[in-house]
Amino acid sequence: MKRPWQPHDDSQKEARRARLAHIRAWRFFRASLVIAAAICVIVFLLLGGAEGLLRHEAVSGSPQPGDAAPLAKIAAQPQQRLVPDGRPVVALTFDDGPNDSITPALIKVLNERGVTATFFMLGERIEQYPDVALLAYESGHQIASHTYNHKSPLTRLGEQELAREVNDAIGAIRGVIGEDPAYMRPPFGEINRQTALTVGWPMILWTVDPRDWECQNADQIYDVVMDNIYDGAVVLMHDKYDSTLEAAQRVIDTLIEQDWRFVTIEQYYQLYGIDTLPGHVYRGQTEVMLQ
Ligand SMILES: [Zn+2]
User: Fold this and answer.
1) How far is the centre of ligand 1, averaged over its atoms, from the C-alpha of 261 (Å)?
2) Three-state secondary-structure class, residue 184
3) Residue 70, pLDDT score
4) Paired strand residues for 235
5) Is residue 182 within 8 Å of residue 165, measured between CB atoms?
6) pTM surpassing 0.90?
7) Active-site residue, from 146, 212, 238, 239
8) How far apart are CA 184 and CA 258, in angstroms?
9) How much distance in Å is there from the Cα of 237 to the middle of ligand 1?
10) What is the C-alpha to C-alpha distance for residues 190 and 147, in angstroms, rounded to an integer?
11) Rounded-to-integer distance, Cα 225 and Cα 236, Å
């Protein structure tokens, strides 16, 4: 039943006013919060935009020899998915480093030419030459794992030893560059299904191998690479021999003349739209079926 209207009880008036004032204050506070959040978003976007502009300038500016770090950092963190541009693609990979002679010299060769590559480094050597590993990373090259100290074959290691080879390498890389590697390369490419599952990391083999460690002859390394290279090749070399350094420089100069596109392993799989999975092994664009 509807109650007849009655005059408000004045004794409640103060309490109502207080409630109203409280509600108004709360609404004001809420509106202020929304406005403050909006301002924060705008400022954030403006800063981000400014950074984008700066980055763009850094990209379009002509890199100086030995001063490729700003350019390279951008290359290390691609903002957009790479797409084919008609040029032949090659991923140069270097194993067994870093060291304090060939690795920095090779990084210089790469940087001076604006070329990116991937270094499958050994954790133990990273701990020995952290500044060289960092130089490679800051120059825009990809740092991946080649285990802690190259124990092989991985398939014969006990569970604990295998875990150490994998985890200590990741720890060494993380300790220098602040992030985990995305890929791992088993020593000599020796891996089987069971070990791959235990490793639990995408593993990357190669498709062109000049066996530089065996011949240690710059002419021969150059010839084998150039005779076997193709669009989509993943080339294996070792940044530990003078002959490899010389051959790599000649290979790169020839490929630049022929307008090849150099990519890191991460860019390679992004370019070909392949999602590499933990515990799976890849040779170029092909997944290796393990026994
Ligand atoms: Zn190796």
Assistant:
1) 25
2) strand
3) 39
4) 92, 208
5) no
6) no
7) 238
8) 30
9) 9
10) 12
11) 9
**pLDDT score, position 23:** 52
Query: What 3-state DSSP class applies to 92?
Result: strand
Q: Which residues pair with 145 in a beta bridge?
A: 121, 184
The two tokens of residue 41 are 């978003």
Give residue 130's pLDDT. 97
φ, ψ of residue 94 in degrees (nearest 5): -125, 125
Q: Mean pLDDT in each 10-residue stretch from start to end of the chain (291 residues)?
A: 48 56 65 67 56 37 38 47 90 97 98 97 97 97 97 91 94 95 96 91 97 96 98 98 98 98 96 95 95 83
pLDDT at 5: 46
- The sign of the torsion formed by the CA atoms of 148, 262, 106, 141 equals negative
The residue type at 42: I
Output the CA torsion 247→97→290→281 (10° steps): -90
Tokens 């705008």 locate to: 42
How far is ligand 1, taken at its centre, from the CA of residue 94, in Å? 9
Within the chain, strands assigned E span 89-95, 118-121, 142-145, 203-204, 233-238, 261-262, 281-283, 286-288
96 catalytic? Reply is no
Of the candidates 140, 148, 196, 200, which has an alpha carbon nearest to the alpha carbon of residue 172? 148
Please spell the DSSP secondary structure of 183-241, one letter per residue. Answer: -B--GGG---HHHHHHH-S-EE--SB---HHHH--HHHHHHHHHHH--TTEEEEEETT-
Residues 6+ away with beta carbon under 8 Å from 150: 96, 122, 187
Q: Is 280 a catalytic residue?
A: no
Ligand 1 centroid to Cα of residue 259, in Å, is 29
Amino acid identity at 65: P
State the amino acid at position 27 in one-letter form: R
Ligand 1 centroid to Cα of residue 146, in Å, is: 7
Distance of CA 206 from the midpoint of ligand 1 (Å)? 12
Please check whether residue 111 is in contact with residue 137, taking contact to mean a CB–CB distance below 8 angstroms: no
What single letter denotes the amino acid at residue 276?
Answer: T
Name the active-site residue from 95, 96, 212, 239. 95
